[in-house]
Amino acid sequence: EDAIALGYSVNVTLIFSLERYAAVAESYLRGLRRAADAGEDLSKIHSVASLFISRLDTAAHELLDGLRSPAATARRGRLGIASAKVAYRHFQAVFSGPRWDALRARGAAPQRLLWASTSSKDPAYRDVRYVENLVGPSTVTTLPRTTLEAFEDHGRVEATLTRDVEEAARTDRKSTRLN
User: Fold this and answer.
1) How far, rounded to the nearest angstrom, does the alpha carbon of residue 70 sit from its chain's CA centroid?
2) Cα–Cα distance between 143 and 151 in angstroms, integer?
3) Which of 6, 52, 125, 175 could form a Cys-Cys staple with 117, CB 3.0–4.6 A?
4) Do the Cβ atoms of 121 and 58 come closer than 8 Å?
5) H-helix or E-strand containing 23?
6) Going by C-beta distance under 8 Å and a sequence separation of 6 or more, which residues neighbour residue 21?
7) How far is Cα 148 from Cα 90, in angstroms, rounded to an integer?
8) What is the pLDDT of residues 91-126, one digit of tens each?
């Protein structure tokens, strides 16, 4: 918030929870408001919030595998994409409406979501899983070369980020219980 208020652009990285993302987005808005009040040119301030998608699944897999139950096994590989979809829904809500419109009128740009850790760590998953399932406007995706080459070879480009968001929200809620 302080860096944004001073006019600096910021990459907030290593975000692993929806609660943290919501706090980051709120800090960005507060920083922009402070920058506007200080007379800063908001059009020169940019930010991304970097969520580490496949790492969420990797961490969840360890916990789920330890439960050794069919219900836990069925939840493998769902948390990363589900969290991204719910974060994107939050992004859409935060960067719309009167509060955002006032900042946008002063030149502000939305804080873009950045999907990081997009290579499939589990060989059972499609190698472009974390790219194909997170296609949507106003986002950034970082890709290791192997994932980029795989996507160029056989990836599908479809607007997937806003599909099945309610199911994603249910998955995210279930993941907090892990039983």
Assistant:
1) 28
2) 9
3) 52
4) yes
5) helix 18-37
6) 15, 49, 51, 87, 90, 113
7) 27
8) 999 999 999 999 999 999 999 999 998 888 888 889
